[in-house]
Amino acid sequence: MNEAFQMKLAGKTALITGANRGLGAATAIKLGQCGAHVGVHYHSDRARADEIVAEITANGGAAFAVEADVSDRSQVRRMVETCVDHAGPVDILVNGARQLGAKKPFLDLDWSDYQPQLDIIVKGAFNCCQAVIGPMIERKSGRIINMLTTVLGEPDWRWHTYGAAKGALLLFTRNLAAEMGPHDITVNAVSPGFVPTDRGTPHSDTYREDFLALTPMGRFGEPDEIADAVAFLASDEARFITGANLPVCGGKVMW
Fold first, then answer.
1. Helix, strand, coil % (nearest 5) of the chain?
2. Which end of the chain is more exposed for a tag (fewer CB within 10 A), N or C?
3. Collapsing DSSP states into helix, strand and coil, what is residue 65?
4. How many Cα atoms occupy the beta-carbon half-sphere of 187 within 13 Å?
């Protein structure tokens, strides 16, 4: 990130769900570098969340770990209260909690394969947004960024459950953006392409080769590049952008 962008989020409180691993961790670290006081959410791996907090603080930032099952409304409320106690009202919410689903042909699926995706990805975002938006409206300021996926532009049977949940989150993003615009609260999305992380799904060499062949920039993305996009949308530079879905994938998907 350009040095001129550093500290653009100074004085802001950011809550990132799913922040103990993968792109969520990269995003938490990035927002910490930009000056935000970061709530590093985790569900089950406190040790990993503490490592992310330690990395942020070692670099001069401020962070703390917060636990919640985002599909549980009461736990989310307590998580947000913890953020307020540590750092003040949430200015930036990044909904990144996810759970990869079963990759089965449609006739082999059961509704129970869909439900966990909807609970974490859609209900989780719903719960988190409801917990922070009231105070954002009062302050007439806020940034919400929902993590989507380029799978939305690449229909494939392997993504029935995951893609359905992310597709619902896309419309959730746009509808909420329309409602929150008059309150100067922006609601946007970032759609990463395939980015190798510690949380990634294993893929065959053939899949990787095919993926790169279809990517104009000819390489995989890096976690920092996704985090940079989130940091931009969280900043004042993006104050007149809302309802957008930004693909960060080297051109593999364009919309």
1. 50, 15, 35
2. C
3. strand
4. 25
The token pair that represents 180 in the structure block: 């929150």
Residue 38 in domain: yes
148 neighbors 189 (Cβ within 8 angstroms): yes
Edge-to-edge strand list for the sheet holding 13-16: 62-67, 37-42, 13-16, 92-95, 142-147, 185-192, 245-248
User: Is 162 considered catalytic here?
Assistant: yes
**Which of 53, 163, 172 lies closest to 124, judged by CA?**
172
Catalytic residue among 42, 114, 162, 207: 162
Element (H, E) at 14: strand 13-16
Residues 107-128 have pLDDT tens digits of 999 999 999 999 999 999 999 9
> What is the average pLDDT value for the chain, to the nearest integer?
94
Q: Is residue 254 one of the residues assigned to a domain?
A: no
Domain that holds residue 141: 3-248
Total tally of structural domains belonging to the chain: 1
**Alpha helix segments (H runs only) across the chain:** 22-33, 46-58, 73-87, 111-117, 124-139, 160-180, 205-213, 223-234
Q: Mapping DSSP to helix (H, G, I), strand (E, B) and coil, where does residue 143 land? A: strand
How many C-beta atoms surround the C-beta of residue 251 within 10 A? 12
pTM above 0.90, yes or no: yes
Structure tokens at 5: 């962008």
Each residue of 134-188: pLDDT tens digit? 999 999 999 999 999 999 998 888 899 999 999 999 999 999 999 999 999 999 9
Domain for residue 253, yes or no? Answer: no
Classify 240 as helix, strand or coil.
coil
